[in-house]
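Reviewers asked in the last cycle whether our approach scales beyond single polypeptides. To address this, we selected a multi-component target totalling 1024 residues and predicted its structure end to end. The input consisted of the following lines:
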Amino acid sequence: MRLKVEPRSTGVPAMNALVPPLAVVATILASGVVFAVLGYPAGRTLFAFFVAPLVSLNGWAELALKAGPLAMIAVGLAAGFRAGIWNIGAEGQLIMGAVAAGGVALGFPDSQGFWVLPLVCLAGLAGGMAWGAVPALLRIRLGVNEILTSLMLTYVATLLLSYLVFGPWKDPDGYSLPQSRMFSDAATLTPILARTRLTSGTLVEFLVPVALWAVLRYALVGFKIRTAGLAPAAAGYAGFVQSRVVWTVFLTASGLAGLAGAFEVLGPIGQLIPQITPGYGFTAIIVAFLGRLHPLGIIPAALLVALSYIGGDTAQVSSGLPKGAAGVVQGLLLFFPLAADFLVRNRVRVVR
Amino acid sequence: MNVSVLVPALATATTSATPLLLAAMGETVTERAGVLNLGIEGMMLVGAVCAFAIDSASGSQILGIAAGAFGGAALSVVFALLTLTLAANQVASGLAVAIFGAGLSSLLGAGFVGRSVVPLAHLHIFLLSDIPVLGPLLLRQDLLVYASVAITAGTWWVLGRTRTGMVLRAVGENDQSAYALGYNVIRIRYLAVLFGGAMSGLAGAYLSLAATPMWMEGLTAGRGWIALVLVVFGAWRPWRVLIGAYLFGGISVLQLYLQGAGLVAIPSQILAMIPYLATIIVLTAISAGGARRLAAPACLGKPFRATT
Amino acid sequence: MPGKTVPGNNLISVPILSRRALLAAPGALAFSPARATPKLKIAFIYTGPVADGGYTYQHDLARQAIQHHFGGAVETHFVENVGEGQECERVLRQLAGDGADMVFSTSFSFMNAVTRVAKLYPEVKFEQATGYKTAPNVAEYNLRFYEGRAVCGTLAGLLSKTGIAGYVAAYPIPEVVMGINAFTLAARAQNPHFRVRVVWISSWIDPGREADAANSLIDQGADILTDHMDSAAVMQTAQARGVQAFGQSADRSAVGPTAQLTAIIDNWAPYCIARVQSVLDGSWRPGSVWLGMKQGGVELAPYGPAVTPPARAAADRIKTGIIDGSVHPFAGPIIDQSGRLRVAAGQTMTDDDILKMDFFVQGA
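The resulting structure, written as structure tokens, was:
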């Protein structure tokens, strides 16, 4: 008596849609087991992780604030992953977008015009795109693996930001602490919901996935990307993809990442500091996969992953769980859909 | 900066390079078999915490080292299950393992933070270790450093000169043909992944037992990702990977020396960028050189599906 | 007042509950539900792990001291590893929204977030360590670490055989710079040719790089190490290589039994306890406080085995001098590296100037 695995010839949409919720349930159960085995109060910890952050308006606002950048970056990355283009450097592109936006904002410290804000946002977009253009170019012209180039550039971007806020862009009135001047009001995204940190930037971040979904579904360029992704060879590590698709996808993803970075520093932070992201660029990759590389699926995925981050902090306070434990939950959140994918694509039968 | 600093500097570079080398060697084998495992960072961390915990609890360094290798290998089993048995996407699985491993390590290590163990002793071969220059450099390192070089040599030998190595390479270059010839592609890849995991675990053990004998969250500080780069830098060839590891380790340490010497007026962050920019330049040079024989294993990253 | 339970100030508690109810669940998760005589809820936030055995650990000792001192009247919590980015603002909002009465923020990188959150929650008292912004509900507190550095520098100047010390530092911010300068000035007072070599790590805690940096400094001739980092890696390396070192923030002799000459110990507890008491009494006022050796904020660990009697005597002289005010670590003349005279002979630097220090003295 054996198990025989047969690929399914047709997809099963119902199963596909079930995977994320089931994955969540499985993650919650598995996390609980892990916590219990290691000596933490499972029930209280799980509650702190998944429920507690959601009980207040402020909690939801913080959730959205964290999920927004994740969603926006993830949709850009997802388009690329479908076509076999592995942009791992979103973190660096995010930082360069923030640097560009911040730089422009610092250049207009006293302006009050309404045009300042769009200008700095555009700068953020451009900054991210410029950073993403390098791995794209190297891949197209010389076949250099974009995973590695984009990753290396992330480190460079982090160091560049550090150099700028410690050196040329340091606030002269800031007691020599590593930070830039605060941006002027015209260049800041103000909170739109009282007593929260929610900004219009966050709204944009959630609208982008919807917009991108529409593009992918209805526009010609979307069709091209999808067909490129359907070819099995293209889904591989060193797939051959038309250079135009590479450019489009890379620039979109890096531009979005840069914009997300700009929103971070223009909104909640209000200045340039050495650390502007808790790893959004990398977490977005998880979000992309958890959302099944589908723009509309990415939105709930982003909320879920954001929850795991915030939950990690609350669990720390209530159960003494070390901060890194959030990684366990996030890893599990990704394991289950990946594993479940197998069942979606294949049928397992018992054979005598 | 006078020359007398050079030798100790190289010795310190060795400390920096060894964990990179160990992890990169493991990943080289994994990738030559056609599997891309991005989860090195997670496996290194799990290895580091296991090694430290066992050494701390038992007082035995050998047990600690073994525990490190075992821990890394155990986590790699999860990766192998996902990507080989369940044919899941390798990039996503690798990332998930990296993040999961990091989280798991911090959970496991929570009780061990702040403790310290006796670091791995430096060998002292009678008389030989006292030869000027070469002595301290070559003959006064600790056990794992020598092991890393030995493993490099072993990997080179097995991959290039034995039948096992040939089969493994075949699996990485053309898995369908290898399957047709009767080789169990999945099993060979499993073994390759396990080896990679064990090596990453060993690298982590080196960090927590020798380099800085302590444990804390995120001890590896991104070294796992660097190891990935080194594999490509070395064009999947063991000796080149070794050179890459020492270059990278050396440059990372070099910028510290330059700072201490007060020599250069370049800001420390710009100096710290050098290793990463250098890697990009080298990658570009390799690709521009168009050397086909230095290309990646053809099946790298693609799941294997038996077509019969 | 040990053992005496003082109920929370009733004037403040009633309005708090109604305002906060809008933003936080009644059964706030982090703190126990409010009761008739509510406990004072105190939260601490840390950039790094408690178990760094250094900076954060010392802050947590203060927290434990508070819990121990006030017993059932208070409820303390902490959040560690908050990092230096903008995560802290979310954590602060959450803590304040969940019902904290007092928040101790232990790093300057939280300062801007503290200022913003303090505006939203005016009834919560914030204590900001090592920052510089105050507000009606934000007080500043800091320790004169540089006094400890002066003692260390004296010892270094006397005991170093090579005349070179290695300094592994995190960021060139004033707090670190003043430490380097105080150390160098004191060492040069004993040995005019003393050199201090500085390596920047660009992070508060990275044991691997700290060890590498320590090794590189030793290779370049330093036989005494000191650091302004949060882990014990530098002391470990010193012990392994057989050189001397000074512990930072805490007594590191467990890691460096023969290596440690002495250590600067951050003692936050007396201040923190006093402030909690003032909240319980209702006498809390914002302020800016900079405690030194005289007030017990900065202590020095017992001298290690390598400290010779004459060195010990010299160090003790400096210590008593600082405490009684006759010795000031930043007394003139002080000349910076470009040759400019910063402080004239006979004068001492003002606190404000020290806080803004952005130059290095000669020899560093």
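Chain C touches chain B at residues 49, 51-53, 57, 81, 166, 197-200, 202, 205-213, 215-220, 231-233, 236, 240, 254-255 (CB under 8 Å). We regard this as preliminary and will revisit it once experimental data from Aim 1 are available.
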